[in-house]
Amino acid sequence: MYNKKYDLIVVGSGAGGFPAAIAAARRGLEVLLVERNAQIGGLLVSGLPILAFLDRSGNPVVKGIGQEIIDRLQALNGTKGHIPSPLLNSVTHVSAPWMSIILFEMCEQEENLDVLLYAELKEVKVDNGKMRGISVFCRGEEMVFEANLVIDATGDACVAYKAGAKYEKGDADGKGLQPPTITFELGNVDYEKLFDYLSEHPEGYKLPETFPGIEQTLDYFRSNICFTMMGFSDIVNEARKTGELTIPRNMIDICRQVNGNTFVNVTRSIDTDVTDFESIIKAEFVCHKQVKELVPFMQKYIPGFENAQLVSMIPFIGVRESRRIVGKKQLTLDNIKNLELPEDTVAIAGYNVDIHSPDSADMTMLTVKHGVGIPYGCLVPEYVEGLLMSGRTISVDQSAFAMTRVMSTCLAVGQAAGIAMAIAHKHGVLPSDIDVSELRAELKKDNALIALD
Ligand SMILES: Cc1cc2nc3c(=O)[nH]c(=O)nc-3n(C[C@H](O)[C@H](O)[C@H](O)COP(=O)(O)OP(=O)(O)OC[C@H]3O[C@@H](n4cnc5c(N)ncnc54)[C@H](O)[C@@H]3O)c2cc1C
């Protein structure tokens, strides 16, 4: 069933990889999508809501394949669509199992696409600086695949790293990475009781000073069937002082899911470098212990959670930050502050700059008035040809990363990467040499957004 040679290999099937594989297969390329898990979708199937399909001004910034997924989910009642949010610009809550079913279905509908699950990248083949293929371990067997075009959507830039591409990680010393987290879901939460408590205790949803200019309202929580809330700093900080809570986080971060359960995003393993296997394994242990501490804490102190039940937990730690590849261009915090939408924009980022402190309990959120453009050069790594980056590992500085890492942006970047590869294949040129205006025209044809309406 699988070929030995493909036009394009996409490694990693998350928000960065999935749309890349679909977009290229729809343009006739023979594509292999490689994924080490048994599920397609990476963090798309974690139950995390997708942030910032809309920017802070309410402009849609991501459509194309990202929107197609949401439309398919909506038809199955697997999402309530894009809900504007005073905190997170917009939130699209998704049902993880329906998302998983849809992603499998979409792959199956592409006749040029082969999906290889249970397959961890082993080696990359590079000749004279050009990608020539990869090998993987799949169910204990080593397999070799040839391709002159490869997209690295592993989230950790595994392909680019092995191919010798230049990368950055964390701050100037390679430290200070945002911490990874194990998220989990609670059932049997009494939201009316929670709202009643908050109406008496508005300090419960007051955001810290590190969220300048952002306010949450009780009315917002009450009027949206799915909502996201960060709060209870008062209760959390008191418990941290007495030692009853040891998790390095100064808030409880929850969202009400499509199924009525509460998704909890609070655990943190600080001082972790996920590219170091000992460090990430230690983080798994740390966060599992934190879940055990947090569930009874919430039952005891957060009104409405007294009878909450632990329903599910992500089966692997969620990685916020690891390698960022150095590309032909780099998106910087200055570009964001200047709200730039350059001529070579191939995807729009519409989120805020959201940083989970690498070494304390804090979190900061700097709002960004409207979407900013990601230039094509951010997808093109230095030193290795035939390779494009997609998802969270594109070429951005550490602060810009805190904006571009969300899944809506990764979906938009993924579609651009897939179409760029189709153009390179069509003209027999390297992806670094394609005409970006042709890419932009093709993106528009596919209903992807490259400008604000
Ligand atoms: C705790 C947490 C909370 C977050 N909250 C939100 C949120 O609320 N909303 C939002 O929009 N974003 C959120 N994000 C950010 C967002 O989820 C990620 O940045 C985004 O999913 C990255 O997409 P990606 O495709 O680059 O990586 P991933 O989704 O991680 O996908 C990478 C895929 O590659 C596969 N892979 C990796 N290495 C290999 C290999 N060596 N061989 C084969 N396959 C491999 C992985 O299994 C995975 O399927 C959060 C992230 C975390 C960790």
Automatic annotation (TrEMBL):
The keyword Protease does not apply. GO terms for molecular function: 4 iron, 4 sulfur cluster binding; metal ion binding; oxidoreductase activity. Keywords: 4Fe-4S, Iron, Iron-sulfur, Metal-binding, Oxidoreductase. InterPro entries: FAD/NAD-bd_sf, HdrA-like. The keyword Acetylation does not apply. Pfam families: FAD_oxidored. PANTHER family: COB--COM HETERODISULFIDE REDUCTASE IRON-SULFUR SUBUNIT A, FERREDOXIN:COB-COM HETERODISULFIDE REDUCTASE SUBUNIT A. This is FAD dependent oxidoreductase. It comes from Ruminiclostridium sufflavum DSM 19573.
